[in-house]
Amino acid sequence: MPFIFEDSTKDAALLLKDVAAELQTEDLNKAGRIFRAVLQSVRDRMPVHDAIQFSAQLPVFWKGVYFDQYDLNKVPVKIRDAHDWINYIRNKNAFAADNDFQQDEEITAAFRAVFQALQRTMTDGQLQKVKESMNEDIQELLAA
After folding, report:
1. CB–CB of 19/31 below 8 Å?
2. Can you give the pLDDT at residue 1?
3. C-alpha–C-alpha distance, residues 39 and 63, integer Å
4. CATH class belonging to 28-143
5. Alpha helices per DSSP H over 24-135
6. What is one Pfam family matched by this protein (predicted)?
7. Cys bridge to 77: 44, 53, 119, 137, which one at CB 3.0-4.6 A?
């Protein structure tokens, strides 16, 4: 089976546009930064095996972003509450956080937006597994 770069690029672009639509922005650079920050935060919260399974459903380009700077020796990160989770996502978007997130509510909305977009591309079981790996108050951020 040949690997078709155009299809892979198209899938990655469609997912990014879906994330941007959920974020209600036309700025694809901003959407990409936020998507990366949330993806990598979710990744760091999971045990290695679960993180790898999660990545299997991402388009090839986003897999590269997902695993960029992944340190197996530092996961899973212990995050005890929603406030710590919000700050963790903010820190993953370190250089642009001040532009992308003015308030904590924007990070919560971004977290929800990314999950909404992923729900349309991933199996429910995979996202449910991710949600269940998080503390209850972090899960509540997705329901708000």
Report:
1. yes
2. 56
3. 10
4. mainly alpha
5. 28-45, 48-55, 60-67, 82-92, 97-100, 104-119, 124-132
6. DUF2267
7. 44
Closest residue by Cα to residue 107 from 89, 127, 82 = 89
How many residues make up the chain in this entry?
144
- The CA angle 136-139-140, to the nearest 5 degrees, is 90
Taking the CA atoms of residue 61, residue 62, residue 67 and residue 68 in that order, the dihedral angle to the nearest 10 degrees is 70
Is residue 3 classed as helix, strand or coil in its secondary structure? coil
Residue 133, amino acid: S
Low-confidence residues of the chain, pLDDT below 70? 1-5, 144
Q: What is the pLDDT of residue 26?
A: 97
Tokens of 140: 């509540």
Question: Is residue 141 a contact partner of residue 112, using CB atoms and an 8 Å limit?
Answer: yes
> pTM score > 0.85 for this model?
yes
